[in-house]
Specification:
Length: about 210
């Protein structure tokens, strides 16, 4: 690495870190990051390869997904990486072999793609695409995130929770053995959810009344 290009990171009043480096006698900013390590890693992964002429300008979306998930796997749980890869199946089917330099100008096509997704899948699929292309911006392969420019990505309205009546709970308990019936009673009384959190629901109120 040329001595003049050695990166430095300075802490800003906001608490974030600004990356700075000198190239051809000119001090330049490499962006603002959440930590000093993140800033210096950005220099190593993005700016230094650009200075040395090693940046891939023909990178496709499929290649970016592989690159991003390989790097993301060092800080994220395997289940998180698997979830992103699963959600990227539809975007890859549509745009997987598109070079990022072309995809960056395809905001209209991405907006149409989002509009054509099933309502219950749109938020998760577009979130994964926005996250992946955001990494492409940080890595220097994109100047902007076309998935974000395609429009807002509101979360869907949660599905209504169907609550069992006391009679239905009793019928379920009668169909099971003592252990299974106890599990039904516990789930209803605590408002048990898949996330493991409890809440006060009409079901638990109904059970208490019984």
């Amino acid at each position: 690495m040329p001595a003049e290009a050695r990166p430095r990171a300075r802490r800003l009043p906001s608490g974030r870190w600004q990356l700075r480096y000198t190239h051809e006698g000119v001090v330049k900013s490499g962006g603002v990051y959440g930590s000093k390590t993140e800033a210096l890693n950005a220099y190593r992964d993005i700016i230094e390869p650009m200075l040395n002429g090693r940046v891939r300008r023909d990178l496709t979306l499929r290649q970016l997904v592989d690159l991003y998930l390989e790097r993301h796997a060092t800080v994220a749980a395997p289940v998180t990486v698997a979830k992103i890869r699963h959600r990227m199946v539809r975007p890859l089917k549509e745009f997987g072999d598109t070079p990022l330099c072309d995809l960056e100008r395809m905001t209209d096509e991405l907006a149409g793609f989002a509009a054509g997704l099933p309502e219950r899948f749109r938020y998760s699929v577009m979130s994964a695409l926005r996250q992946t292309l955001g990494a492409g911006v940080r890595y220097g392969y994109l100047a902007s995130n076309p998935a974000k420019m395609a429009g807002p990505n509101p979360a869907p309205t949660p599905r209504a929770v169907r609550c069992f009546s006391p009679d239905e709970i009793t019928a379920l308990r009668d169909e099971l053995d003592e252990r299974g019936g106890g599990a039904i009673a516990f789930a209803a009384a605590t408002g048990l959810r898949r996330s493991g959190r409890t809440s006060s629901t009409p079901t638990s109120t109904a059970l208490a009344a019984s």
